[in-house]
Structures are given as C-alpha cells and as structure tokens.
Specification:
Blueprint: H1 8-18, E1 31-32, E2 37-40, E3 43-47, H2 60-73, H3 81-84, H4 88-101, E4 105-109, H5 112-123, E5 129-133, H6 138-147, E6 150-154, H7 159-169, E7 177-181, H8 193-203, E8 206-210, H9 225-228, E9 237-241, E10 251-255, H10 267-270, H11 277-292, H12 295-313, E11 325-330, H13 333-345, E12 348-349, E13 351-353, E14 363-368, H14 375-389
Parallel strand pairs: 3-12, 5-6, 5-7, 7-8, 8-9
Antiparallel strand pairs: 1-2, 2-3, 4-10, 9-10, 11-14, 13-14
Keywords: Aminotransferase, Pyridoxal phosphate, Transferase
InterPro entries: Aminotrans_II_pyridoxalP_BS, Aminotransferase_I/II_large, AON_synthase_class-II, PyrdxlP-dep_Trfase, PyrdxlP-dep_Trfase_major, PyrdxlP-dep_Trfase_small
EC number: 2.6.1.-
Amino acid sequence: MGLYDRFTHLAHERKQLQVSGINPFGTCIDDIYSATEGRIGTQKVILAGTNNYLGLTFNALAIAQGQAALASQGTGTTGSRMANGSYGPHLALEREIAEFFGRSTAIVFSTGYTANLGIISTLATRGSVVLLDADSHASIYDACALGGAEIIRFRHNDAKDLERRMVRLGERARDAIIIVEGIYSMLGDVAPLAEIVDIKRRLGGYLIVDEAHSFGVMGPTGRGLAEAVGVEQDVDIIVGTFSKSLASIGGFAVGFDDMDVLRYASRPYIFTASPSPSSIASVRSSLGTIAQHPELREKLWRNAHLLYQGLSALGFTLGPNISPVVPVMIGTKEEGLMFWRQLISLGVYVNLVLPPAAPSGMTLLRCSVNAEHTEAQINSIIQAFSALRK
C-alpha cells in the first residue's frame, strides 16, 4: 500500500469540485485592502467570511504597536517560554487578560488550537471522562484523543441529553469534564449555558467553555457567552483565541489560582515556540480597544441583524438564531460550489463549507459580518444572494 493510497477517495472528490473555476480549497485572496474589502484575481470583493468580528485587523494603533514591537524585539522568540524564557510582553498580556476576565490566572498559547490542545489534553487524561457537545471544534476532539480520555458525546445544544448521560455516570459525574462552545462557528448558534451550569451545580463536574467566536462579541464587556448569561463563576476554565475579535494569532486560557500549574504539565505549551513580539503587541492593543469601545459590539450586532433579516426575507434557510455567523444552507455540494463562485463574480467572498466540516452533512455558504462593514456593504451582500435566486 502506498503512503497516500488511503486518501485516494478524498483526492478524487476534491478534484471533481476543482474542475473549471476558482479552487475553493486554497482560495488566494490576492490583495487585502481593509477589514472588509479585498481582491480575488481581477475581482474586487467584499470580505464576508473572515471571523474578523470587530474589524480590528487594520486598526491603526494595533498596527503601530505591532510594528514597534517588531523593530525593538525582533521577528520571533525562536523557542518555547519554558526553554527560552518569557518576554516581558508575554507576561504583561497574561496579566491583562486575567484582569479583563476578573480571574487570577491566564496562560497564553501560540494558537487557539494549541490553547485547546494544551489545556484539555493535560486535564482529560486516561481514566478521565469528558462530556462534549457533538458539534465541538476539531481541536477539542483532538485534545481529548491526545490526552486519552473517555469521550461521551451529547446531542448538540441538548442540555437534557447531557443530564441523562451525567446521571448514567453516577459518582463518576462529579469528576467529569464538560466542554461546550460559546458561539458555534458553523451555524452561529450558542450553547444553553445556563441550563448546563444548573446541571453542573446539581450533579458535579468541571466546565470548560471555548469562547473563540463569542469573545469580544457577547456580554456587557465582551467576555463572551458566560458573561452574557451571568454564569462566569461556574465556569472553571474559559479558552479563547486571538484570531477572531482580537485580529491576530494565538490563544489563551483563563482560570482560577490552581490553573497555573498546567504550565508545567502541558506538552503543547512546554514544547511550542511562544508567540512573536508583534503578535503579542497587537493583541494587547486590541484587548484595550475591546475594553474601551463597546460601540464596536453594538455596530457588529446591528450588521448581524441586517444581514440575517435580509437573507431570511429572500427565503434562504439560515441558522437557528441571529449572530455574527450567518450560515446559508444549500442543497448539494455542487450547488454550493456553483453559488460560491457566482458570489465571487458578484463581488462577495464567503466561506464554502462542505461535509464533514459542516454539521449533519449540510453544505453551507457561511457568512460572517464585522463591525467595519457599512450598511451599503451589507446590502450589497444581500443583493448578491438575491441574484442567486434568479
């Protein structure tokens, strides 16, 4: 058997979808003009598939502070913090994130994926039980597999199913780890966190919430879903990323005093090079902007309502609730690819999501809005989708 023979079916499927037209599996955005506009080939496009929720990728202060760090501290750290030591800004960012969340401990990782891998795989080891939402991100599944924990999936956003499975565990439920997300990245729906916290209070367990897509987006100060529903003190660890609202690259976890010990046990933390100085500087700047400018969240949600309501009025089947992630359900993979290419020709770039990345075998045209989109741009996106109907 050849080294790659087991991927033949996958390669054939991808080749069939790449015939005649822009390749959706490795799209080249040739120019980025702003947080909302770019160019693919000769076509200028509105960027409506970026996760850049607060539109901070071109924030002048973040760029200036990133450039200053690049000039004064160099291009990279060239090693892990455990081996090479931490730079002062790494420690400063951890203090600032902990303070932002009102927690005592924060750990910064090199990516959001590594944050989940580093925290979950260290806690969810052999003999541990993890109950996770069936639609959890790949990094959560991979973290559980790396740690060797027993994985019990409960139906997506079904607190009653979680409770049934907890009850079956008996005494083991007290030490189980429950993992959910804030906003789910494909359908834009949110976890029933208040109900899950109620189950935890009655049956025990430890709760980890991945706020990757809800940080900066939900809650009075932007801390995420746990803040929005008033259950932060019942969440043991919050994990997040720098690559969405914070407009950079990296990840973090926040918890209480005891969490700091994970630095000395987490292999992904110990053996991964630490984030570059410019990334840390831009994240610190963006964190300050999120704290000081709640109007960005207000604008984001106005845009989310405008796009959701506009696409719904056209008769498209969308996600279950309004959020900055607006998925449009499409019948087949072939139809999804055709529509995706047509949207680019109409000046709109969204994400084409095919099974198995999309849940339940669906094909999605996944839109995401940000605070920098103008009302005119949102209307242009709606008009492009209207043209698909014709």
